[in-house]
Description:
By secondary structure, this protein is of the alpha/beta class. The chain is built from 17 helices and 13 strands. Among the domains are: 55-187, 3-Layer(aba) Sandwich (Rossmann fold); 207-368, NAD(P)-binding Rossmann-like Domain (Rossmann fold, 3-Layer(aba) Sandwich), CATH 3.40.50.
Amino acid sequence: MTYVDEVYQRVVDQNPAQPEFHQAVKEVLDSLRPVIEANEAHYRKEALLERITTPDRQILFRVPWVDDQGQVQVNNGFRVQFNNAIGPYKGGLRLHPSVTLGTIKFLGFEQVFKNSLTTLPIGGGKGGSDFDPKGKSDREIMAFCQSFMTELYKHIGPNVDVPAGDIGTGAREIGYLYGQYKRLRTAYEGVLTGKGLTFGGSLARTEATGYGLLYIVNEYLKDHNDSFTGKTVTVSGAGNVAIYAIEKAQELGAKVVTTSDSTGWIYDPEGIDVALLKEVKEVKRARLTEYAAARPSAEYHEGRGVWSVKTDIALPCATQNELHLEDAQTLVANGVQVVAEGANMPTTREATDFLQENKIAFLPGKAANAGGVAVSALEMSQNSERLSWTFEEVDSKLQAIMADIYQNISAAAKKYGKDEDYVAGANIAGFEKVANAMEAQGIV
Ligand SMILES: NC(=O)C1=CN([C@@H]2O[C@H](COP(=O)(O)OP(=O)(O)OC[C@H]3O[C@@H](n4cnc5c(N)ncnc54)[C@H](O)[C@@H]3O)[C@@H](O)[C@H]2O)C=CC1
Ligand SMILES: O=C(O)CCC(=O)C(=O)O
C-alpha cells in the first residue's frame, strides 16, 4: 500500500461513521499523490499526512436552553480546531439539525486548505450544533446562542480561534453570540467575524462569499477570452452565498434563472429578482413559494431540480453532496461550460470526476468560496488596527485575492502536469503552505 492509501485507511478506521469526513480527506489525499510520491520517505518519517488529517482538538459540549413553552431543550455543540500552523483557527459555525461531529470535521478539514489558499494568516476550524433555527422565535435563538457561547468562550479568542457564520448562522446569531462573549470575558475584541457594522463588522463581509465566487469564475472566463455577457447561470440555494452570487452574476451581465431552498426550487426565465429574493429570505425568512406568489414569470417546483435546467455556468450554493452524478450527466448533456462551488463540497466525488472527464471547468469550493473567509480575515485586520475600511477598499482586496487564488491553483496544477485540473491545483497549493509551516515548527 502506498503511504497515501495507508493514511486514508487510518482515517476511515479511526473515524467510523463519518462518511463526509472520509470523502473530503480522500479527495485531498488523491490530489496530493504526485507531491507525496516525489518525497514519500520524508513525509512518512515525519508522519505529516497523519498529522494533517488529525484535528488538533475536538471540543464537544452540551447546550441546554429553555424554549417559549418553558421546556428545557438540549442540543450538541461542537468546535473542531483542526490546524493552526499558519494562523489562529478560523471557520464558521453551522446550525442545522443534520450536524454531527463528522460534518464539522469535514468542514474543518476543508477549511485548513481553503484558508491557506487565501494567502492570509488563518488556520482552519469549524463548529456548530444540531440546533434547528427554523421556526424559532428571536428569544429562543438568543437563549440557544447564549448557552452555546457559555461553553465556547473558554476555547476561543482573537489570537486563538475566531468563529463566524455558516448555514443557519447569520448576522442575528453572530450578534447574540458576540454579546454573550463580551459579557463573559469583559473584553471588546475581534473574536467573531460577520459582526454587525456598528460593532466591528466589515463592509462587504455579507456579500463576500457570493461575490468572490463570481470574481474567480470571471478570472477563469477572462483567462479563456470569454465573459459573463449573455450567459445563463443556474444557482442552487437561497441563503447568504446564493443571494450575493446571483446579485454579482447579474451585475456582470449574466442571467440567473434558478434559486432553491430545502423544500423546492424556482425557475424564473426572466432572471431572478434579487430584491424580491432578499425580501423573502433575509427579511421575512419565508419559503420560496412567497417569491413565486409575487413574481408572475416564476415557476415553483417541489423537491430538487435546479440541475435539470439548461445552463452555461452552474453554481451550487446550498449544501454538501447536492449535485449528484445524474445531475452532472444532465448538465454536460445540456452544454454546461463551468461548474463552480459556492457551497462546501456540494458536488459528489462521482459527479466531480464525470465533469472533469468531460473537460468541464470545475472550480472546487476550497478555492471558489474562499472569498468569505478572506474578508473575515480582513475584518480581523480592521479590528486589530481599530479602523474600518470602505466597501470599495474591501471589495477591491477581495477581487485581488480571488484573482491570486485562480493564478495560484492554475500554476500548482500545471507544475504537476495537471493543467486545468483546479481540484488538484487547489489541494496542492493549499497543502504546500501548511505542510511547510508544520515542518518548520517541529513535531507538534
Ligand atoms: N456564509 C459563508 O460565508 C460561507 C458559506 N459557505 C458554504 O455555503 C453553503 C451555504 O451557506 P450559507 O449561504 O451561508 O447558508 P444559509 O443558511 O444562508 O443558506 C443555506 C441555503 O441552503 C439551503 N439548504 C440548507 N440545507 C439544505 C439541504 N439539506 N437541502 C437543500 N437545501 C439546503 C437552505 O435552504 C438555504 O437556502 C454551505 O455549504 C456553507 O458551508 C462557504 C463559504 C463561506
Ligand atoms: O468567515 C469565516 O470565518 C468562515 C467562513 C466559512 O465557514 C467557510 O469558509 O466555509
